[in-house]
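step 4 of 6: structure.
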Amino acid sequence: MTQAQLKKSSRIQQRNRSLILDAALEVFSQHGYRGTTLDQIAERAGLSKPNILYYFEGKEEIHVTLLNQLMETWLDPLVTLDPEGDPLSEILNYVQRKLDMAHELPRQSRLFAGEILQGAPRMGPHLEAGLKPLFDEKCALIQIWMDAGHLRPVDPRHLIFSIWATTQHYADFASQVDVLLQGEPQPQQGAEDYLVTLFTRLLKP
Amino acid sequence: MTQAQLKKSSRIQQRNRSLILDAALEVFSQHGYRGTTLDQIAERAGLSKPNILYYFEGKEEIHVTLLNQLMETWLDPLVTLDPEGDPLSEILNYVQRKLDMAHELPRQSRLFAGEILQGAPRMGPHLEAGLKPLFDEKCALIQIWMDAGHLRPVDPRHLIFSIWATTQHYADFASQVDVLLQGEPQPQQGAEDYLVTLFTRLLKP
DNA sequence: TCGTGGCTTTACCAAATGGTAAAATTTACC
DNA sequence: GGTAAATTTTACCATTTGGTAAAGCCACGA
């Protein structure tokens, strides 16, 4: 245990841990925490169940590990909102990056959504500690931009919520979107253009 | 069985079925399909597990029943989009009604979201048959409004997606929203005002 | 070549879970 | 009040599931 945590661990450990995490991401994101069995993860990872429990203490540790890894990636686009940049471009760029993530990492997006849906039982404190300060900081930044007249004023918090909601919708509700968009030529481009229009009309002074 | 389906059923049947469905809605919406046990439903309903299986064939039938009931309620605000009304008012009214629903029926909202998140495994055909035609019809209506110059043109499909996404966000991600909104005494702008602003600026000619 | 320590498998287990059979009880109606 | 049907309880069961113990395997340095 101490070994696995302190040393950068052997090649085989790294390989198997990432094999397990990848398999787990696939299954957890599709079936949720309780809907996922260790056997499913084991099969997808090509390892035996006890072997998986050699690398992780239990099902919950795998899930929490995934969630923690996710946090970084997830918050990154918000972190990079630049106070020095052009306000509208910064916001639109943020929308763009979130939308790209929804398209490129749908499994992570669904994992996150599923966890929040159930009240973030395995993420609560981590959420408050990691997300809240960043959220407050960026709200303040946006407020400054608005006060300076660079953006039309709206509540920054709801602005951020609506960016999250619209961008993640495409990953989280993909099955619904797909059914309803049957026959559209370039769905990806459509979403992008639409969201740029939406937030430009909202914010452009 | 045939009795229960054909006759309007006794008072006691109605009472117990709705007791079960209410308990099941609570638990399913909180823990998801696989995360919910018949024992949990039974306890919350104040009935024994075998008694529950007297009224429903199994866990899945309870879940499907809930989903089907939900469909009606859920689609209703979209159904009432009126071709004769003022276009912008009709859209804003739709937003308003969806937001009210998210506030008043958060359990239903989360149940629906959870089902879609997992690829709608117990809803697939029902979705396509019930939602798609209505969706196409209302997209066409909105397109007509736009062509006539009553609304600024955007892709009607993405407009509807963004309305769903933003309004449901408040119910589905309530735990996240609550954490992030902590400590602000008076929100300068409520969700309702914000969304009205958002869609007005998007659509007003 | 022989240990030694990290890794993997085999063989389990206890609890939880969806579900059933049938006896016991209540209800509705005459 | 009596009886047949509807309802509820008691006592189970088979399977699934997260997890463990311990034996076996394998790579590698001495």
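step 5 of 6: annotate
 - Residues 3, 10, 12-13, 16, 47-48, 50-51, 54 of chain B lie near DNA strand D (CB under 10 Å from a C1').
 - Confidence is low (pLDDT under 50) at residues 1-8 of chain B.
step 6 of 6: archive
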